[in-house]
Amino acid sequence: MPASSPAIDSSSLxxxxxxxxxxxxxxxxxxxxxxxxxxxxxxxxxxxxxxVQQFGEARLEWLRGLLPFEKGIPxxxxxxxxxxxxxxxxxxxxxxxxxxxIRRKTDGEVVALDGKTLCxxxxxxxxxxxxxxxxxxxxxxxxxxxxxRSEDGSNEIEAIPQLLEALHLEGCIVTxxxxxxxxxxxxxxxxxGADYLLRVKDNQESLRTDIERVFERFREQxxxxxxxxxxGGHGRVETRRCWAMExxxxxxxxxxxxxGARSIALxxxxxxxxxxxxxxxxxxxxxxxxxxxxxxxxxxSLPPDATQLLExxxxxxxxxxxxxxxxxxxxxxxxxxxRSGNAADNLGRVRRLALSMLKQDDSIEGGTxxxxxx
Length: 374
Known about the structure:
The chain is elongated, with a radius of gyration of 23 Å. It has helices at residues 10-17, 31-43, 49-58, 60-63, 76-85, 88-102, 156-166, 183-191, 205-220, 306-316, 318-329, 343-360, 368-373; strands at residues 110-118, 131-138, 143-150, 173-176, 195-200, 227-233, 236-246, 263-274, 289-300. It is built from 13 helices and 9 strands.
C-alpha cells in the first residue's frame, strides 16, 4: 500500500498496541514488533503463522522502516506461542483504541451486530468447541468496531450487552437479528444514547403475534406499504415493501416492557428468479421462474418512517457480505486451523483489523483479495 494511505498509519497502530502486556519474560523479540509483523503480514495475504514468518523474512527491510527488528523475524512457532498467550481482553481493548482513532462519528449510522463462528478453531478429536464471536460492524464506514467472545452461539444474549457497553454508540442505529430481541438489550442501547431496530421472531412469541395481527389488519383493509423499492439483475428481481406504524401509548403491543419503543414494521421481500433456461433478454416476469416471499417483523425506537426503517434493515445485512463473507472468502477464516491457547481469538481480531484497514483504503481498485496482493 502507498505510505500515504490512511489505512496503514503505522504510528497510530504501534501507539494503540503499546498498552498490551507481554506474557513472556526476557524474550529477544519485542512484543510490539511481533504484533505489527502479524498485522502487516495478514493485510498482505498471510493466513498462517508460517506465512507470516515468510512475509517478514521477505520484507524485513520494509518492516525496519516501522520498527527496529534488530533480532530479525521470529519463527512461526514463536509467533504462534506468543499469540496463544496474549490476553484476548487486552488485545480487544487495543483494537478498539485503534478503531476510535480512525472512526468518523456519524449520527444515524447503522451499526449491525451479529455472530460468527470460527469453524476451524474447534477440534473434534479433543472435544474443543469452535470459537464464536459477536461483532459490531459500522455499515457505512465498513469498520469492525469491536467483538465479544460467546462460548457458543446460544450465548449471544450474554455477549451482546458486554459488547454494547464497550462501544461508543451515541447517535447510531443499532440493528440486531432475532437473538438480540431482548428487553434488557433494548434498554442498554437506549442508555448508550442510540436507537435500536430489532427483528422479532418466535423467541418473542407474544410480541410477534401482536405485531402480526396489526399488519394483518392493515392488509385486510387494503392499506399499502409506506415505501417500496426494487432492484435486481441477471434474471433476479427483488421487491421490498415496508409498512410502519407508531406504537407509543396505543396499546398495540406491551410497549412498557420495551424501553423507548416507538414503532413496529412489516418488511416484505419478494424475490423473482428467472428460469436460467428462459430465453436471453426477456423481461423479468415475462418468462418462467420462481417467486418467493419473506416477511420480517421489527420493533424500533425510531419513528414510524417506513423509508428509514427499510433502509436500516437493508444495511444490517451488509455485515454478512461486507464482513463475514470477506473473512471466509478473502481471509479463509473458516479453514484456519489455529487453535492453541488464545491464538484463534487474537488472530481473528487481527483479521478484522486488517479487513477494516483494507476497506478504508480507496487508493487501490478491486476487491479485498486484490488489495491484499497489492
